[in-house]
Amino acid sequence: GTGSNSTAEAVRLTRFAKEAGATGALMVAPYYNKPTQEGFYQHYKTVADAVDIPIVLYNIPGRTAKNMEADTICRISADCPNVVAIKESTGSMDQASQILSASSLTLLSGDDSLTLPLMALGGSGVVSVAGNVVPQDVKAMITAWQSGRVAEAQQWHHKLFPLCRDMLSLSTNPIPVKAAMKLTGRDCGNVRLPLTPLSDAELSALTATLQRYGVL
Are residues 92 and 148 in the same domain? Predict the structure, then answer.
């Protein structure tokens, strides 16, 4: 990712990514300083005009403190040809519907539990957290939906849901997913401060979910 709450820094990071060989950039919406909708637009347009690689918007108001509204997203899409997709993490089906109906952006879910509902609206997939633990199952759900096997996709959704829920509700992401990866044999190290490991109770709950899922 090359996002920043400083437009100049976002330009610098995106240029650096291109020079390093990146073929695209994921850019989280500016955080903390809470831009106006015009500010969001000018931020992304400035970066898109400065660096000619595909850009994926990332809208996650739960972390950035302000929603980038659908009209703003569609305006960015219309005026910036190299803005090609959005990772949509508002949890709003209404907002996703507006984006899909009024822009040509590829829409990817940023919430695992909403992947199937968003694909039903016309979304293309997910930037998955659960996919770090059971990538083959996330892929199976998406493939089933894209192949018209709706009932099978629904079955995968319901199987995945408890795991998706724990990944995002037991504690702050990525704390649970790193713990789950360690439990399933892919130790990727501890979280760094200010993040802290799961409590004993949280770890016990996650372990039980993984056991019920069948990966432990």
Answer: no
